Amino acid sequence: MISYLNGHYLPKGEIAISPDDRGFLFADGLYEVMRSYDGEIFQPQAHIERLSYGAEQLRFQQMEFSFLIEVAEELIGRNQLNRGDAIIYIQVTRGIAPRLHKFPPPGTSLTVYATIRPFQPKTDEMTEGINVIFVPDQRWARTDIKSIGLLPNVLAQQRAMENNAAEAVFIRDGAITEGTRSNFFAVIGGTVITRPRTNYILAGITRKMVIEICQKSSIPFQERSIFETEAHEAQELFIAGTTVEVTPVVQIEGKNVGNGKPGPITMKLQKAFAELVHGTIEVTEKNFRNKY
Ligand code: PDD
């Protein structure tokens, strides 16, 4: 794959990163995962805005990253990924400097890396639903920043795999925050519910689109905490994210949610999201009611 590093395009295998890179030494960096559908990047501006927000919060020297949309388009073209799905990965770190905790000297350039790979969505999980486990949220209190420091997510996801679950869902003070790589939703009494945006969750772009679909198609929607106990009783659960889109959660630790089948509201949202992504319909109440 042709990848990008600091203004240059070159084969991924030829990319060399300094051992003094602050991403390597301190996880002092940010990342984004964007998806392209037949060469069309989904919501690129929203990803760049989130990256800029993170850069501002981490006091990076540079906060303007809109050029990365062109870089991503270039990667699609150079790697001939205009057909099918692809995942574009972007990582920005505070640059290269001797290992001292404080910021490097002014003028130290950020390290900007981007790569791409073809992507096969897990259609079986999207149609049949997944099992999840609940794990304590041991992450830091700024998970609104898409930091590359993902150890709690790595450990939780590994535990999920070892327990035949596709995702681990974090619990903080008895309430669900989010998944290791997704936002979490419940359907309770016909209302779609998700945790409000705070410093404890990532402002997911898929989450935002799901909320917009609910609002435009008059599906009752509420932002509030979902307690762990409530999740077990919910009619439907689902996760949302760039890689999982809208994926039903049908079991928690092997126990059925509802009847153990993907719920009707979840599946409607999944379809509406797919159509939005492929640009085939504008989601409005009328279209939604007529189609689903
Ligand atoms: N993860 N919450 C967390 C902790 C995430 O890591 C992600 C995305 C999301 C969903 O955000 P979005 O809808 O913008 O993808 C929520 C990416 C895909 C990853 O780490 O691979």
TrEMBL record:
Could you tell me what reaction this enzyme catalyses? D-alanine + 2-oxoglutarate = D-glutamate + pyruvate
Sorted alphabetically, the keyword list is: Aminotransferase, Pyridoxal phosphate, Transferase
Q: How does it assemble?
A: Homodimer.
User: What SUPFAM superfamilies does the annotation carry?
Assistant: D-aminoacid aminotransferase-like PLP-dependent enzymes
PANTHER family found in the cross-reference section: AMINO-ACID AMINOTRANSFERASE, D-ALANINE AMINOTRANSFERASE
> What are the top taxonomic ranks of the organism?
Bacteria, Pseudomonadati, Bacteria division LCP-89
Q: What is its EC number?
A: 2.6.1.21
Q: What's any one GO cellular component for it?
A: cytosol
Source organism of this protein record: candidate division LCP-89 bacterium B3_LCP
Indicate the family of this protein.
Belongs to the class-IV pyridoxal-phosphate-dependent aminotransferase family.
Q: Identify this protein by name.
A: D-alanine aminotransferase
Q: Which InterPro entries match?
A: Aminotrans_IV, Aminotrans_IV_CS, Aminotransferase-like, BCAT-like_C, BCAT-like_N, Class-IV_PLP-Dep_Aminotrnsfr, D_amino_transT
Role this protein plays:
Acts on the D-isomers of alanine, leucine, aspartate, glutamate, aminobutyrate, norvaline and asparagine. The enzyme transfers an amino group from a substrate D-amino acid to the pyridoxal phosphate cofactor to form pyridoxamine and an alpha-keto acid in the first half-reaction.
ATP-binding listed as a keyword = no
Q: Name one GO molecular function term.
A: D-alanine-2-oxoglutarate aminotransferase activity
Q: Which cofactor does it need?
A: pyridoxal 5'-phosphate
* Enzyme class label: transferase
In this record, what's one Pfam family?
A: Aminotran_4
* GO annotation terms (biological process): amino acid biosynthetic process; carboxylic acid biosynthetic process; D-amino acid metabolic process
